[in-house]
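RECORD TYPE: inverse folding
INPUT: structure tokens
STRUCTURE:
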């Protein structure tokens, strides 16, 4: 039987197309295939015989390239541990690069659905890409496990074909505000973030929640995604003389920001707090070292949370360092896909049955026990408060508090 493979854009073979389902037939029509190309409906035996084809859209180039590589590595580790099979069915993984661009994400998703004929779709880092894929997968009736954290996908843009085994931006922005109020009530906070969908949501949720607690908000600063020079921003922050700064940067932007934060001698002078992405254990902290010491962040992923211990050990044994958000996300998504396949006897493409099976009982993942909210298919997650502390060989996100089983406000928010 074939092993899980990473095709990076190869088309499927004709034999793999011979067992298309009725839902796949609709997908082909929606992406422009002709009726004459359609295959007969699959029997259960044929469905069991052919590989389960999983498509992943992630960022393998652009500002989130390191994060995308981590996501793929986490998923591949889970597949290796599973013997490249879910419920005794061989699994084939096909990965496409969205370059952190919504248009490219849409094009790659359509390729996976229409040309590669995947059974399930997963992935995405960039919130804008995740929002762009919403209509594509809904119209194609493609079972999708989206990992981009845009709030609207749990609210006004809920889709019956999307489950979200990850956080929403609100889960992190609101808990950071809550923690800031609990530890430094009345502090004046300025914000700084990348100017795109995720940055706007993180900051908006932080500001709204902090003000509800009576907190004071100063200026809000925005920088283009992919910024190289944070000098003007840091000079402006220093001139504000805030008690604290709340930040959202990710990937290479986070690395550059934190390095320059130290170069401008703001480290240790102004309290720094933000989303876990800005202090990612795998893709940011090793590159910035003590520039992040003392910073506080809120995150659904932690290398020091008990639920992640087995995954942390396996990931390090595979030759990697401590895992961060997206390696853990890829792995946890794989755990959910495996559970979905096992709970449906090897055929998770019966989407109504699969959704209900995941709603009926939580999945044990590297994020902890993960129930799904039936209102919107959104995971309910523990959110950890980290302080970046010294550790042998570097710095580490250390859990100092946990907000258990946080549920997004949902469609009526």
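DESIGNED SEQUENCE:
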């Amino acid at each position: 039987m074939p092993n899980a493979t990473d095709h990076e854009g190869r088309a499927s073979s004709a034999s793999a197309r011979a067992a298309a389902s009725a839902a796949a037939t609709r997908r082909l029509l929606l992406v422009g295939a002709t009726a004459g190309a359609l295959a007969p409906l699959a029997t259960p035996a044929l469905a069991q015989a052919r590989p389960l084809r999983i498509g992943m859209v992630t960022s393998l180039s652009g500002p989130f390239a390191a994060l995308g590589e981590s996501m793929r590595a986490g998923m591949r580790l889970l597949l290796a541990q599973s013997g490249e099979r879910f419920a005794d069915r061989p699994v084939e993984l096909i990965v496409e690069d969205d370059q952190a661009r919504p248009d490219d994400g849409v094009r790659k998703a359509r390729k996976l659905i229409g040309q590669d004929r995947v059974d399930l779709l997963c992935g995405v880092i960039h919130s804008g890409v995740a929002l762009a894929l919403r209509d594509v997968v809904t119209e194609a009736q493609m079972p999708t496990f989206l990992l981009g954290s845009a709030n609207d996908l749990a609210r006004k843009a809920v889709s019956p074909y999307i489950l979200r085994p990850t956080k929403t931006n609100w889960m992190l922005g609101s808990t950071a505000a809550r923690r800031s109020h609990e530890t430094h009530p009345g502090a004046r906070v300025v914000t700084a973030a990348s100017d795109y969908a995720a940055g706007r949501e993180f900051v908006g949720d932080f500001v709204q929640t902090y003000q509800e607690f009576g907190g004071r908000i100063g200026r809000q600063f925005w920088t283009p995604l992919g910024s190289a020079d944070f000098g003007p921003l840091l000079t402006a922050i220093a001139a504000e003389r805030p008690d604290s700064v709340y930040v959202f940067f990710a990937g290479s932007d986070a690395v550059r920001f934190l390095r320059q934060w130290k170069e401008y001698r703001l480290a240790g002078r102004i309290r720094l707090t933000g989303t876990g992405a800005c202090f990612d254990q795998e893709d940011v902290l090793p590159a910035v070292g003590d520039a992040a010491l003392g910073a506080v962040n809120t995150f659904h992923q932690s290398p020091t949370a008990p639920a992640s211990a087995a995954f942390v050990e396996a990931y390090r044994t595979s030759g990697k360092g401590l895992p961060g958000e997206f390696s853990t996300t890829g792995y946890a998504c794989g755990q959910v896909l495996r559970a979905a396949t096992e709970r449906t006897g090897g055929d998770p493409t019966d989407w109504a049955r699969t959704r209900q099976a995941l709603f009926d009982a939580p999945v044990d993942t590297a994020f902890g026990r993960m129930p799904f909210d039936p209102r919107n298919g959104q995971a309910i997650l523990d959110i950890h408060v980290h302080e970046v502390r010294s550790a042998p060989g570097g710095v580490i996100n250390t859990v100092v508090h946990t907000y258990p089983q946080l549920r997004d406000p949902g469609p009526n928010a």
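NOTES: DSSP finds 14 helices and 17 strands in the chain.
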